[in-house]
Every structure is written in C-alpha cells, then in structure tokens.
Design goal:
Helices cover 27% and strands 32% of the residues. An eight-stranded antiparallel beta barrel has the order 1-6-5-4-3-7-8-10, surrounded by five helices. A hairpin with a 2-residue loop joins strand 5 and strand 6. The longest helix is centred in the first third of the chain and has 14 residues. The N and C termini lie far apart (37 Å).
Length: 254
C-alpha cells in the first residue's frame, strides 16, 4: 500500500504542480480493501469544455449514462457533532462516510455506499436498498437492518447506534463520466451542485438550491497505473489537487 501511494505521488509530481501530503501506515484490515488512486481538481467552465472534447477523443462515455450524463442524488450521514464534516475540513487522512444514492430519479436502484479514504487513496463499498428500506432508514426505523445478511447495512446499523449517525443533507449534481480500460480509469466531470439544506426526505422531489459558488469538479480514479494518454488529457495549467467536498460545500447551507 505504501509503495502504491509513493508511485501515485511520483506520477503527480511529474504531471502537476507539487502537492505534499502523507499517508498513515495501513492498519490491520486495510490490505483487504480495494483502494484506488484518486485525484480531484477544481476547474472552471472553460476547463470543462476543453476536457469534455479531449476525453471524447480518447475515452468512452460510461455506458450506464444515457446521453453521456446522469443526475445524482445522495443523502449523507453524520454524527450530532459533525464528525465526518470535521474530519474532512481538518484534513484527517484516514476517514469514512456513509451515504445513500440513486441516479436519474430511478428509485428502483438505490445504493447504500461507504467511502473510505487513506490519504490520496479511496475505497467504495456498496449494498442495494429497496425504496422501503431507504425510507425506513431516513425515518429512523432501523430494526430491519440488524441481521439482514448485508454486511454494509449491518455496519451502518451498528454505527447509527454507537456513533449516532443520522441523515444530514441531500446533495444533487450532474455528472459526465468517462472510462478507459487500461488501468481501470474513471474520469468524471461534476457540476450544478445543489443542496437540500436541512431536507432529508430522500425519496420525495425535495427542492434543492445551488450550493453557493461551487466549482466544477474533475475527478480521476485508477487502479495500479494511470496511462500516459489519460494523464496528458486531463493536464491543465495551474490546476492543483483539491480537497473539495460536495458534502462539506452543501453543509455550509444546512
């Protein structure tokens, strides 16, 4: 894991302005998680147009995105003391967050997701939820989660009791995803970030509003190596790795 983190940093130093960060030593159990390298950059509207044209020339649109774009709605969980938010804003290297999510308004496929971060590496685990399960989760009816046979759901159940995790805010945005087979690369362009303020009614057409002057976000994720063609495609002068968080941006307003 430390060797992969070092390779990630070396690639970044060759391609972008240098950014210093450190990784904690892996803990027991981390080696069983499938961590991927992640870069995130704040870009502007001109950058978006440039990258969109470049990516269309070298990568493929995600086949799950009709017309190359989809709408994402997520509901994030946090503790009464905003532990997840504070760990993000304080730059804690090792952290995690839970959310539930669906795409393009399709309630037939809802995911519970856990995102784990270890410095510049990330891991995502997911489990499917039915609409009724998602609604029960939002409404605080949790008994069904215990012993349901889905480890991630059971983990959230435990942490909703031990850490008092609760739904905090809805985050909506538009995503343009691209994929490249070598290196299992995924590049996304995220924009029109909106917040549900204090609304947590995840399955209803909850009104969301623009999350202030939120930037456009370029994200690049890959496994063992990042192909030169992708590294060259996403290179932009003056852009540095960012720690921008859609959740943190939306929590400013609720």
């Amino acid at each position: 894991m430390e060797r992969e983190a070092t390779e990630c940093l070396q690639i970044f130093q060759r391609s972008f302005s240098a950014v210093e960060y450190t990784l904690d030593s892996p803990k027991k159990g981390d080696e069983a998680m499938d961590f991927r390298h992640e870069w995130k950059h704040e870009i502007n509207a001109l950058d978006l147009r440039i990258l969109r044209q470049r990516l269309r020339a070298v990568a493929q649109p995600d086949p799950h995105a009709a017309g190359g774009v989809y709408q994402i709605r997520s509901l994030y969980f946090d503790t009464p003391t905003d532990r997840c938010l504070r760990e993000k804003t304080d730059g804690v290297s090792r952290r995690e967050k839970f959310r539930i999510r669906y795409y393009d308004g399709d309630l037939s496929l809802i995911h519970l997701e856990k995102k784990s971060k270890l410095g510049g590496l990330g891991n995502k685990q997911a489990a499917d939820l039915t609409p009724q399960e998602a609604q029960d989760l939002v409404d605080g009816r949790l008994a069904w989660m215990a012993g349901c046979g889905r480890p991630l759901v059971e983990e959230l159940y435990r942490k909703m009791h031990t850490h008092q995790l609760r739904p905090r805010t809805i985050v909506d945005y538009t995503r343009e995803p691209f994929v490249y087979p070598a290196g299992n690369v995924r590049v996304t362009l995220d924009y029109h970030i909106r917040t549900g303020l204090n609304c947590t009614d995840f399955l209803s057409p909850c009104l969301t509003v623009p999350a202030g002057d939120a930037p456009i976000i370029l994200e690049v994720k890959w496994d063992a190596f990042l192909p030169d063609v992708i590294r060259d495609t996403v290179r932009l002068e003056g852009r540095r790795v960012s720690s921008f968080s859609k959740y943190a941006q939306c929590r400013v307003y609720g």
